[in-house]
Amino acid sequence: MIEFRQVSKQYGSRGDSAGGSAALSEVSLSIETGELVYLSGPSGAGKSTLLKMIAAMERPSSGTISVNGQDIGRLGASGIPYLRRKLGLMFQPADLLNDRSVLANVMLPLLVTGASRADADKRARAALARVGLEDKAPAAPLALSGGEQQRVAIARAIVNRPQIILADEPTANLDRGTADKVMDALRAFHEAGVTCLIATHDESILQGARRVIRLEKGRVVSGAELSIGTGLAGAMS
Ligand SMILES: Nc1ncnc2c1ncn2[C@@H]1O[C@H](COP(=O)(O)OP(=O)(O)OP(=O)(O)O)[C@@H](O)[C@H]1O
Prior knowledge:
Blueprint: E1 2-9, E2 24-31, E3 36-40, H1 47-54, E4 62-67, E5 70-71, H2 80-85, E6 87-90, H3 102-112, H4 117-130, H5 146-158, E7 164-168, H6 176-191, E8 195-199, H7 203-207, E9 212-216, E10 219-222
Helix pairs in contact: 3-4, 3-5, 4-5, 5-6
The protein binds adenosine-5'-triphosphate.
Domain ABC transporter: 2-236
Keywords: ATP-binding, Cell membrane, Membrane, Nucleotide-binding
Pfam family, one: ABC_tran
Protein backbone atom coordinates (compact mmCIF):
# COMPACT_ATOMS: atom_id res chain seq x y z
CA MET A 1 0.00 0.00 0.00
CA ILE A 2 1.16 3.50 -0.85
CA GLU A 3 -0.07 6.33 1.35
CA PHE A 4 0.46 10.08 1.11
CA ARG A 5 -0.62 12.19 4.07
CA GLN A 6 -0.70 15.95 3.57
CA VAL A 7 2.36 15.85 1.36
CA SER A 8 3.75 19.09 -0.02
CA LYS A 9 6.84 19.59 -2.14
CA GLN A 10 8.60 22.84 -2.73
CA TYR A 11 11.68 22.56 -4.92
CA GLY A 12 14.66 24.53 -3.73
CA SER A 13 13.46 24.94 -0.17
CA ARG A 14 13.92 22.89 2.94
CA GLY A 15 10.38 22.75 4.16
CA ASP A 16 9.78 26.44 4.44
CA SER A 17 7.03 27.55 2.14
CA ALA A 18 8.16 31.14 1.75
CA GLY A 19 9.76 30.90 -1.70
CA GLY A 20 8.42 29.64 -5.03
CA SER A 21 5.19 27.83 -5.80
CA ALA A 22 4.65 24.29 -4.60
CA ALA A 23 5.07 21.37 -7.01
CA LEU A 24 2.68 19.45 -4.72
CA SER A 25 0.32 20.90 -2.09
CA GLU A 26 -1.14 18.85 0.74
CA VAL A 27 -1.63 15.70 -1.28
CA SER A 28 -3.37 12.88 0.58
CA LEU A 29 -4.13 9.59 -1.17
CA SER A 30 -4.00 5.84 -0.76
CA ILE A 31 -3.22 3.19 -3.32
CA GLU A 32 -4.05 -0.37 -2.38
CA THR A 33 -1.73 -3.29 -3.07
CA GLY A 34 -2.47 -4.69 -6.53
CA GLU A 35 -4.29 -1.59 -7.85
CA LEU A 36 -3.68 -0.10 -11.29
CA VAL A 37 -3.92 3.66 -10.92
CA TYR A 38 -3.33 6.38 -13.49
CA LEU A 39 -2.08 9.85 -12.72
CA SER A 40 -3.20 12.59 -15.06
CA GLY A 41 -3.13 16.36 -15.25
CA PRO A 42 -1.64 19.16 -17.29
CA SER A 43 2.07 19.61 -17.78
CA GLY A 44 3.63 20.86 -14.55
CA ALA A 45 0.78 19.51 -12.37
CA GLY A 46 3.19 17.45 -10.27
CA LYS A 47 2.83 13.91 -11.67
CA SER A 48 6.55 13.19 -12.02
CA THR A 49 7.23 14.76 -8.64
CA LEU A 50 4.68 12.46 -7.01
CA LEU A 51 6.21 9.36 -8.63
CA LYS A 52 9.75 10.41 -7.74
CA MET A 53 8.80 10.86 -4.10
CA ILE A 54 7.58 7.25 -3.88
CA ALA A 55 11.04 6.15 -5.02
CA ALA A 56 12.71 8.59 -2.57
CA MET A 57 14.30 10.37 -5.54
CA GLU A 58 12.74 13.54 -4.11
CA ARG A 59 11.87 14.16 -0.48
CA PRO A 60 8.66 15.80 0.71
CA SER A 61 8.98 19.29 2.17
CA SER A 62 6.21 18.32 4.60
CA GLY A 63 3.83 15.44 5.18
CA THR A 64 4.48 11.71 5.19
CA ILE A 65 4.67 9.00 2.53
CA SER A 66 4.57 5.34 3.40
CA VAL A 67 5.16 2.33 1.17
CA ASN A 68 3.95 -0.96 2.66
CA GLY A 69 3.83 0.67 6.07
CA GLN A 70 7.35 2.07 5.92
CA ASP A 71 7.74 5.85 6.31
CA ILE A 72 10.06 6.61 3.41
CA GLY A 73 10.73 10.17 4.56
CA ARG A 74 12.65 8.63 7.44
CA LEU A 75 14.74 6.30 5.33
CA GLY A 76 18.46 6.75 5.71
CA ALA A 77 20.87 6.28 2.80
CA SER A 78 21.18 2.58 3.63
CA GLY A 79 17.41 2.05 3.44
CA ILE A 80 17.00 3.45 -0.08
CA PRO A 81 18.36 0.44 -2.02
CA TYR A 82 16.04 -1.75 0.05
CA LEU A 83 13.04 0.43 -0.93
CA ARG A 84 14.08 0.52 -4.61
CA ARG A 85 14.30 -3.27 -4.75
CA LYS A 86 10.51 -3.29 -4.27
CA LEU A 87 10.06 -0.87 -7.16
CA GLY A 88 10.20 -1.14 -10.92
CA LEU A 89 10.96 2.29 -12.32
CA MET A 90 10.26 3.63 -15.81
CA PHE A 91 11.10 7.26 -15.56
CA GLN A 92 12.38 8.50 -18.89
CA PRO A 93 11.15 7.01 -22.11
CA ALA A 94 13.72 4.44 -23.21
CA ASP A 95 16.72 5.67 -21.22
CA LEU A 96 18.67 2.60 -22.27
CA LEU A 97 22.46 2.38 -22.46
CA ASN A 98 23.17 2.38 -26.16
CA ASP A 99 26.68 0.95 -25.92
CA ARG A 100 25.33 -2.31 -24.44
CA SER A 101 23.05 -4.98 -25.79
CA VAL A 102 19.38 -5.20 -24.90
CA LEU A 103 20.17 -8.21 -22.71
CA ALA A 104 22.95 -6.35 -20.87
CA ASN A 105 20.57 -3.45 -20.17
CA VAL A 106 18.01 -5.77 -18.61
CA MET A 107 20.68 -7.65 -16.61
CA LEU A 108 22.00 -4.45 -15.06
CA PRO A 109 19.55 -4.06 -12.13
CA LEU A 110 20.30 -7.67 -11.15
CA LEU A 111 24.07 -7.32 -11.36
CA VAL A 112 24.09 -4.16 -9.24
CA THR A 113 22.13 -5.97 -6.53
CA GLY A 114 24.63 -8.83 -6.45
CA ALA A 115 23.15 -11.53 -8.71
CA SER A 116 25.58 -13.85 -10.49
CA ARG A 117 26.03 -13.36 -14.24
CA ALA A 118 24.43 -16.72 -14.98
CA ASP A 119 21.38 -15.98 -12.85
CA ALA A 120 21.07 -12.43 -14.24
CA ASP A 121 21.32 -13.77 -17.79
CA LYS A 122 18.55 -16.29 -17.18
CA ARG A 123 16.21 -13.86 -15.45
CA ALA A 124 16.82 -11.06 -17.97
CA ARG A 125 15.95 -13.42 -20.84
CA ALA A 126 12.77 -14.44 -18.99
CA ALA A 127 11.83 -10.76 -18.51
CA LEU A 128 12.42 -10.07 -22.22
CA ALA A 129 10.23 -13.05 -23.06
CA ARG A 130 7.42 -11.59 -20.94
CA VAL A 131 7.37 -8.48 -23.12
CA GLY A 132 7.73 -10.52 -26.32
CA LEU A 133 11.32 -9.53 -27.09
CA GLU A 134 13.41 -12.61 -26.35
CA ASP A 135 14.77 -12.59 -29.91
CA LYS A 136 16.10 -9.03 -29.45
CA ALA A 137 18.45 -9.94 -26.58
CA PRO A 138 21.68 -9.47 -28.58
CA ALA A 139 20.50 -6.34 -30.43
CA ALA A 140 21.69 -2.81 -29.77
CA PRO A 141 18.88 -0.65 -28.29
CA LEU A 142 19.18 1.84 -31.15
CA ALA A 143 18.37 -0.93 -33.63
CA LEU A 144 14.92 -1.28 -32.02
CA SER A 145 11.75 0.70 -32.67
CA GLY A 146 10.53 3.20 -30.06
CA GLY A 147 7.90 0.77 -28.82
CA GLU A 148 10.39 -2.06 -28.58
CA GLN A 149 12.72 0.18 -26.59
CA GLN A 150 9.85 0.96 -24.22
CA ARG A 151 9.19 -2.74 -23.79
CA VAL A 152 12.89 -3.29 -23.02
CA ALA A 153 12.49 -0.56 -20.37
CA ILE A 154 9.54 -2.52 -18.95
CA ALA A 155 11.60 -5.72 -18.92
CA ARG A 156 14.36 -3.87 -17.06
CA ALA A 157 11.80 -2.44 -14.61
CA ILE A 158 10.29 -5.85 -13.81
CA VAL A 159 13.39 -8.04 -13.86
CA ASN A 160 13.77 -7.69 -10.08
CA ARG A 161 10.15 -8.83 -9.60
CA PRO A 162 9.04 -5.54 -8.06
CA GLN A 163 5.94 -5.20 -5.92
CA ILE A 164 5.22 -1.76 -7.41
CA ILE A 165 5.77 -0.36 -10.91
CA LEU A 166 6.07 3.40 -11.29
CA ALA A 167 5.90 4.52 -14.92
CA ASP A 168 6.14 8.12 -16.11
CA GLU A 169 4.60 8.60 -19.57
CA PRO A 170 5.44 5.08 -20.76
CA THR A 171 3.67 5.65 -24.10
CA ALA A 172 5.06 9.11 -24.87
CA ASN A 173 6.00 9.50 -28.55
CA LEU A 174 4.55 6.14 -29.58
CA ASP A 175 1.92 5.49 -32.23
CA ARG A 176 -1.42 4.05 -31.12
CA GLY A 177 -0.66 0.40 -31.93
CA THR A 178 2.74 0.49 -30.23
CA ALA A 179 1.36 2.36 -27.22
CA ASP A 180 -1.30 -0.33 -26.87
CA LYS A 181 1.34 -3.06 -26.81
CA VAL A 182 3.30 -1.22 -24.12
CA MET A 183 0.13 -0.80 -22.07
CA ASP A 184 -0.82 -4.45 -22.55
CA ALA A 185 2.57 -5.43 -21.13
CA LEU A 186 2.06 -3.16 -18.09
CA ARG A 187 -1.50 -4.40 -17.55
CA ALA A 188 -0.24 -7.98 -17.56
CA PHE A 189 1.90 -7.16 -14.51
CA HIS A 190 -1.08 -5.60 -12.80
CA GLU A 191 -3.05 -8.77 -13.51
CA ALA A 192 -0.24 -10.75 -11.88
CA GLY A 193 -0.77 -8.72 -8.70
CA VAL A 194 1.81 -5.93 -9.10
CA THR A 195 0.70 -2.46 -8.00
CA CYS A 196 1.02 -0.07 -10.97
CA LEU A 197 1.03 3.71 -10.89
CA ILE A 198 1.24 5.22 -14.35
CA ALA A 199 1.44 8.92 -15.23
CA THR A 200 -0.02 9.63 -18.65
CA HIS A 201 -1.52 12.32 -20.83
CA ASP A 202 -2.94 9.68 -23.14
CA GLU A 203 -6.71 10.18 -23.12
CA SER A 204 -7.44 6.88 -24.81
CA ILE A 205 -5.73 5.05 -21.95
CA LEU A 206 -7.53 7.15 -19.35
CA GLN A 207 -10.97 6.55 -20.90
CA GLY A 208 -11.09 2.89 -19.94
CA ALA A 209 -9.35 3.35 -16.60
CA ARG A 210 -10.91 2.23 -13.36
CA ARG A 211 -9.13 4.79 -11.24
CA VAL A 212 -7.51 8.06 -12.28
CA ILE A 213 -5.94 10.49 -9.84
CA ARG A 214 -6.11 13.95 -11.39
CA LEU A 215 -3.65 16.61 -10.37
CA GLU A 216 -3.83 20.31 -11.10
CA LYS A 217 -1.23 22.80 -9.94
CA GLY A 218 0.08 20.37 -7.36
CA ARG A 219 -3.31 19.50 -5.88
CA VAL A 220 -5.38 16.37 -6.24
CA VAL A 221 -8.68 17.37 -7.84
CA SER A 222 -10.19 13.88 -8.06
CA GLY A 223 -9.43 10.20 -7.58
CA ALA A 224 -7.66 10.38 -4.21
CA GLU A 225 -10.21 8.11 -2.59
CA LEU A 226 -9.80 4.36 -2.72
CA SER A 227 -11.90 2.70 -5.41
CA ILE A 228 -13.89 -0.16 -3.99
CA GLY A 229 -13.10 -3.69 -5.05
CA THR A 230 -10.11 -2.97 -7.29
CA GLY A 231 -7.41 -4.28 -4.97
CA LEU A 232 -6.02 -7.64 -5.99
CA ALA A 233 -4.92 -9.66 -3.04
CA GLY A 234 -1.44 -11.07 -2.87
CA ALA A 235 1.20 -8.91 -4.48
CA MET A 236 4.17 -10.65 -6.02
CA SER A 237 7.06 -10.87 -3.64
N1 LIG B 1 14.09 19.57 -10.17
C1 LIG B 1 13.22 20.58 -10.15
N2 LIG B 1 13.59 21.80 -9.68
C2 LIG B 1 12.71 22.81 -9.61
N3 LIG B 1 11.44 22.74 -10.01
C3 LIG B 1 11.01 21.58 -10.48
C4 LIG B 1 11.87 20.42 -10.58
N4 LIG B 1 11.16 19.39 -11.08
C5 LIG B 1 9.90 19.86 -11.30
N5 LIG B 1 9.82 21.16 -10.93
C6 LIG B 1 8.59 22.00 -10.99
O1 LIG B 1 7.58 21.34 -10.24
C7 LIG B 1 6.31 21.44 -10.90
C8 LIG B 1 5.77 20.04 -11.15
O2 LIG B 1 6.61 19.38 -12.10
P1 LIG B 1 6.41 17.87 -12.53
O3 LIG B 1 7.56 17.52 -13.43
O4 LIG B 1 6.21 17.04 -11.33
O5 LIG B 1 5.06 17.96 -13.37
P2 LIG B 1 4.40 16.92 -14.37
O6 LIG B 1 2.94 16.93 -14.05
O7 LIG B 1 5.11 15.63 -14.32
O8 LIG B 1 4.63 17.60 -15.78
P3 LIG B 1 4.81 16.93 -17.24
O9 LIG B 1 3.47 16.37 -17.62
O10 LIG B 1 5.19 18.10 -18.09
O11 LIG B 1 5.91 15.91 -17.13
C9 LIG B 1 6.56 22.24 -12.16
O12 LIG B 1 6.21 23.58 -11.89
C10 LIG B 1 8.04 22.09 -12.40
O13 LIG B 1 8.55 23.23 -13.08
